[in-house]
Amino acid sequence: MILARFLGPRVWLLVAALLAAAVLVPLSNLWLPADHPLHVPSHIVPLLGKYVCYALLALALDLVWGHVGILSLGHGAFFALGGYAMGMYLMRQIGPRGVYGNPVLPDFMVFLNWGELPWFWHGFDQFWFAALMVVLVPGLLAFVFGWFAFRSRVTGVYLSIITQALTYALLLAFFRNDMGFGGNNGLTDFKDILGFPIQAGTTRAALFAASCVALALGVLLVGAVTRSKLGSLMTAVRDAESRTRFIGWRPEYVKLFAFTVSAVMAGIAGALYVPQVGIINPGEFAPVNSIEVVVWAAIGGRGTILGPVVGALLVASSKSYFTAVAPDTWLFVLGGLFVFVTLFLPRGIIGTIDHGWTGWRERLKASRAAERGAGAPPAAPPQSPGDLPSPAE
Amino acid sequence: MFKPTQWIRSAVAALMVASTTLSGALAQDAAKPTGEPIKVGVLHSLSGTMAISETTLKDVMLMLIEEQNAKGGLLGRPLEPVVVDPASDWPLFAEQMRTLVSSDKVDVVFCCWTSVSRKSILPVAEELNTVVFYPVQYEGEESSKNIFYTGAAPNQQAIPAVDYLMEEGVERWVLEGTDYVYPRTTNKILEAYLQSKGVAPEDIRVNYTPFGFSDWQTEVAAIKEFGSAGKKTAVVSTVNGDANVPFYKELGNQGVAATDIPVVAFSVGEEELAGIDTAPLVGHLAAWNYFMSVDTPENKAFIDKWHAFIKNDKRVTNDPMEAHYIGFNMWVKAVEKAGTTDPDAVIAALPGIEVPNLTGGISKMLPNHHITKPVLIGEINAEGQFDVVYETDGLVEGDAWSDFLPESKMLTADWTDPVNCGNYNTETKTCGGATAPATSN
Amino acid sequence: MLRQLRLCLALLLAALALAAPAHAQGPDIAAIVAKLGGKISFPDTEAVIAELAATGDPAAERPLRALAAGQLVWRDGDEAVFIATSGAEPTPLLDPVTGADAGTAPKDQLNKIRIKNSIRTAVDDALAGLTLRADDPAMRRRAAENLFAAADPEGIDVLDAALAAETDANVRAVMEQARAAAILKSDRPGADKEAAVTTLTARGDRPALNALTAFAAAAPAGEAQEAAARGAAQIEQTIALWGQAQNIWYGLSLGSVLLLAAIGLAITFGVMGVINMAHGEMVMLGAYTTFVVQEAIRTQVPWLFEWSLAIALPLAFLVSGSVGLVMERGLIRFLYGRPLETLLATFGVSLILQQLVRTIFGPTNREVGNPDWMSGAFQFGQMAITWNRLWIIVFALTVFAALLFALNRTPMGLQMRAVTQNRKMASAMGIRTPFVDAMTFALGSGIAGIAGVALSQIDNVSPDLGGSYIIDSFMVVVFGGVGNLWGTLVGAMTLGIVNKFLEPYAGAVLGKIVVLVLIILFIQKRPRGLFAQKGRFVDA
């Protein structure tokens, strides 16, 4: 109960919604007859799963951007690294079923004459190892990168640009065939995961459910962190870093913590994404992808937990929809949406709803106070994340 | 505020509405033929980096479908194109492939340009058992039951080109490519092939540049230096897409003339030349299976139809367009032969189907899902077209697995009985690849 | 091998021609040329060329040149051969030997005589034999260069005869080098060879090096052989030095491209603090303006083509500048003080502009031609310097200087700097800050537009043009130090040169990765870039 009050009703509602989706969507897909109005068609399930992974990525970005004020233009890198770790596991699972029938080497290595498995591919035949790497590789990269960057007090735009440089450098590196990650083609043609065939409806449903659970856990984690004392410190770092430093805190450690946790979340999102879309390639490192993540968070409303989730679901699904319905004009729609949201909904969708809600409540209280007469102190605004001032840059 | 189940329900409902409106929106232009339309998926990028090449292929598909409808449709039913935009985003290719088949119920998909997009849709095509036509020259080393490769395999483009240059006295080779799988594989095959013809390893220079590379000064200077060793030198270019224009501009400016160091390209066609002033490039070469300048009645009719359809008589035609022309006609014939659009029946009917190509021959679908094509070598002329300087005697059969790579020389693909698999090992007489005496499928 | 044989033949014939320059009754050129009519194979064409060369008659030059240029045609029916210089309908014809007017013919009755590279080479060789004593020095020089490449001992006598008559010092030098190269392959005495080695060492380029190394490896030990080895080593050293110079040049050239791409951003982002993701699209609009200008010139006033870039420059500035102005008034002015939101909005604008251009001009590359003064290269020592790169460096530096002047020496520049340094104070002093904001943004966008004119000369003109420069541009501005134009200059040049020095060793891809990692590390060392703005800052 304490925890419930601590996190606030919205976080719990979101978690409940996600868990319900994790149960209901697979149920409807697998057991309802195809012509039932509530039946979720099989091709929609991995699509929804993909959106949920995007939502987790947006939530991860929002942890550093919305709550600590670090605008990372390179979160796609952590997502892709997590994805590659999972992809490598899935590649190893193919075993002798590849076109060349080589039990150890993935196909692309066979026809590019790799004699033996490169050292960094070892261990990925074990799921536990791959799972460890999903967490460890993005986390470690973020830790090392953040350690240097935050201690050197690289801030603001400079930090944004070097995160972009990071993902751009990784993009170029993974494009290189000599790196041993399949070059531009990336990793694909997966067969099964943990022994279950990856194409099967049940596996798909399970992956969708797993994504929902991961997102729910992510929401709980971000909710808990931001409502804790550490969360207050994060807000302080975001709004007045120097002042926080002057009163004796070490903002770099707060940032480092948030950045690393966020990278791990992004990596997990990537790992869940790969088996559902069936391919991971260097395109995921493209700087534009990372900017898109920023756009999701901004459209949903940053610093609101619910916002990035809604933003990611909304933008990603409208992209799917418009590329199919209006293949020639969808970029106008998407571009126009970004402009519209920045101009008219600067707090994002959820932020604006919150703002409107609290503003209305304040006005209501003020008018009641006025009715009661002068002397009553004005009510303090409720502590909702939507009230926080926009991050200053 | 809202119930979670409702939220999910409405999300799902919205998506279902999305897919039904899509099919509704495109179903307007009913032609003369009646009955349930046969849906043809057109999956080509209309935005992003590949739009530059793929948009034309979408247009040519619309033209072919319109023409077929004017001829009375197929099996008495009208054809209906379903166009989507995968936006040069590879996972989006897989996603839209799935939607096209599962939701729009298309019977065939004409898809892709890059290898990665093909690799991305391949598992989906196999899972949902869809017929897919792929119209671009590619690296080979693949054969899928569901994919029909109407572009050139390496033995239908790279090897004849090198043979031609050797006849012209070239002894030193620069293999210049963009760093991705098609140039890597092609260069690997060419290296093995050249060495088997007695070219010394120090007479071969291999170099890779990134996608969209635009600063060619250093590399062109290096090519000039490599070519000044006294032996006749040629560049075999697998440079992709956008990087070609700056490459050719730099070649022209640094004065690398075709008579000194000819460049033979596998990815430069009429469409790419349309963006360059070709005067300094006259004499450089390209190897394809079709050129717009080929003088046959079929080609003339095709070009006229294309100009009328696109309403611009300056637009060029190119090799992948011809590949779609062949592929589409093969599919039409196969459906007529099978009497149904059922994928299994069409896949079984396709091998052996023969249709005329635009260069005056008859192309045939082979059991390995590749086709027979002539190989033409053309020199760039000042009008931005190619003058054919060499043509293979007959049609060349596409080979899915290269004979010059040790890993695949014992493999063949044959999707007809009794073999019926894509990686048949002729040494162990089993399916399942090179190394393992695998369980047959 | 084939080429060598052909050259020998040409040389022999040239020797004949030199010995007996005036033919009283030569074989009939017109009769030989007529053999090209009708469908003939490439080897037959080559045979005809050899036959023409064998006449030694300078009159063979006209048909040979027309053949190499692809202008020789034959008519249906009588299979007569003509020169057709245009593809007009009906096509005007010229006599292949005399060049006299030969009437016209419908286009579809004419067949181009097919040529290929080996035909062009055969023609070149034939002409070299015919033209060692041509009137034009450039032609004689080219003939001599051909002989140098062939390095055939048989050619020594021909060269001696030509040298005796040669007056042009440059051509003489090449002839002597050709003679030296031939001597090294002959059985002349050692002293001659030593002299030849000296001549070649003085030439000092890569072909000379190849000739010397080949001689040093093959010849028996002796003074000439040792001299050749020494000469080769010396040339190698010079070439290595020139190689470094060439790298610096390439680096400067790449740097100037980066500078052009980034300099507009240095204003909109560096000075105004707007993260303008649509900056690349401003560059693209400039490139498309050039395309439209050239297209108009091509159809309306073709003689103006050489001036097309000069005409496009102000127009591109206006087009991109006004788009920038509209963006600032309609969008960005609502977002000042929220730089990260400008990122979002301008990202949206960039998508819209890209798709707009794609809708109007189509997704494919559009052709932007190079005027003659932007084409080709000249030799500077052992470096080949291309004109377009040279002009782009000059142009980038000019734009930089002009911008510096505008910001530091004009009243508008003063106001711009005042507003960006202290908006409230500037406003209090009576400066119309919104107007200045709009003008600054328009200036930055306009400069991006003129960068587009320059970039259209070396890169694709496609809707994706902008996207390929945006990341590099941000790197340059941030590396140089936000808000400092000099930083942008030094940043661009440094990145260009470092990149070009890494490229030969690491390859283009790895080189670029290394540069990115270096930028990341550099920012750790100097968190505000190369030229950090001085002043009392707390948080940015």
From TrEMBL, chain A:
Source organism per UniProt: Antarcticirhabdus aurantiaca
The protein, known as: Urea ABC transporter permease subunit UrtC
UniProtKB/TrEMBL annotation, chain B:
Name this polypeptide is given: Urea ABC transporter substrate-binding protein
Biological source species: Antarcticirhabdus aurantiaca
From TrEMBL, chain C:
Protein's name in the database: Urea ABC transporter permease subunit UrtB
Organism (species): Antarcticirhabdus aurantiaca
Gene assigned in the entry: urtB
